[in-house]
Design brief:
about 400 residues; mainly alpha; Receptor-associated Protein; 3 domains; 16 helices
Length: about 400
């Protein structure tokens, strides 16, 4: 946050000066007035240029974490509930955050609010920070005069997504660590260990089995062309990242993710829980169902699921029932479809969607807890296969050499 040098007069007329942090000169003036100081001049202090920060700003590398968004949303809800004006609430929050992207966005929002724009319109200028669902909920809160309730709902929604994401990351940490360790071990074996055995076997002029020849040839290839192998892997990673950023590539990749073995089912249920929770929150807040579907499709985070949500929205626009359009997508289980039907007939669709979200979240929690038990056998098989190849390729010839030496 920038530093400002100020001069002013206290309540008894004495001249005071000093330095203070603030989002901008208007925010600093408000802080000084709260302290009983009438500002005379406020000048931003020259800051040293941080090359790393300039580089991050140039290439848009800053991101706002889900924890930071949760904290900001909870603070806004609490401050607005306490009767503090929005501009003062944002100015106060700016004093306690450190994320450059969030600071830059909130400064602009504060300026937009001071110029007379609505909060939802101001937030819409920063799509990297605020999702479509977030903006739509703020708009509803402004229109209904229940902005503090909107922030409370969004805080609960963000917190639930955070917990699901953390649970999935925790479950994937062990298998990911093991896979990385195996990859590092294979690189070390091919570049440093196996070449030593190759020179030993060559010196003894042994007739080697095909397993050993395979290992020696693979190791020789990596030793000879490791630079090209590294460049090929880098090109593959960059090409993949470029492909998944295209509309068609993103759709195919997201479809593969939700249909992948083991982890795909968990991610699919987590996305279904997010969809149901978002729909219940938006519909319960008074967002029209067609608009809610459009907002959710743009903020759910998976293009494959988004396409199904869009097809539901298009069916509703044609006058079809929600249950019918949901059934046609094939996304939901028969049990969930029954909940859809009951909620639509009883007129309490938001309550049933909340129940569906709870149902999916419980399924995700259970699947995450049992994920390690499902993956561990596969890891053991992979490690066993690697040890078997090494045993057949390296230790069998060594055993033959030991027998020859004994004779």
């Amino acid at each position: 946050m920038p530093q400002f040098e100020f001069k002013g007069r206290s309540g008894n007329g004495q001249l005071v000066d000093g330095e203070i942090e603030g989002a901008n000169s208007n925010a600093v003036a408000g802080l000084l007035m709260d302290r009983g100081v009438t500002p005379i001049s406020i000048v931003e202090k020259n800051q040293q240029i941080d090359i790393l920060e300039v580089f991050r700003d140039r290439f848009n590398l800053h991101q706002v974490s889900i924890e930071e968004m949760l904290m900001f949303t909870r603070q806004m809800g609490a401050l607005i509930k306490a009767g503090i004006p929005i501009t003062r609430a944002i100015a106060g929050i700016l004093e306690s955050i450190e994320n450059p992207l969030l600071i830059k966005s909130l400064r602009d929002i504060l300026e937009q609010l001071e110029s007379g724009r609505n909060l939802s319109v101001s937030c819409a200028r920063h799509p990297r920070v605020f999702s479509n669902l977030y903006i739509s909920m703020i708009q509803v809160g402004e229109n209904t005069g229940r902005l503090e309730e909107t922030f409370a709902l969004m805080a609960d929604y963000i917190d639930r997504n955070r917990r699901i994401t953390q649970n999935i990351k925790t479950a994937m940490r062990y298998p990911t660590t093991v896979i990385i360790a195996i990859a590092i071990a294979m690189v070390i074996l091919n570049l440093f260990v196996i070449p030593k055995f190759a020179s030993f076997f060559e010196a003894n002029e042994l007739e080697l089995p095909w397993q050993t020849l395979l290992l020696l040839n693979m190791s020789g290839f990596f030793v000879e062309y490791w630079v090209f192998v590294g460049m090929a892997l880098l090109a593959l990673v960059l090409g993949f990242r470029h492909y998944v950023n295209t509309p068609n590539g993103k759709y195919r990749w997201h479809k593969f993710i939700v249909n992948a073995p083991l982890i795909g089912e968990i991610l699919n249920r987590a996305l279904m829980a997010r969809f149901a929770r978002s729909f219940a929150m938006a519909y319960g807040a008074g967002v029209p169902i067609v608009q809610a579907m459009g907002v959710i499709s743009r903020s759910i985070g998976n293009e494959y699921i988004s396409s199904h949500v869009n097809s539901m929205r298009e069916g509703i626009e044609r006058g079809e029932a929600l249950t019918r359009t949901a059934h046609r997508t094939g996304m939901f289980t028969p049990v969930v479809m029954q909940m859809f039907s009951v909620g639509e007939e009883a007129g309490n669709l938001d309550e049933m969607m909340t129940f569906i979200a709870d149902f999916y979240e419980e399924e995700v929690d259970y699947d995450v807890k049992t994920l390690s038990d499902k993956i561990e056998p596969l890891i053991y098989v992979a490690i066993g296969a690697m040890v078997l190849v090494l045993a057949l390729g390296i230790f069998v010839p060594m055993w033959d050499i030991a027998q020859l030496a004994g004779r």
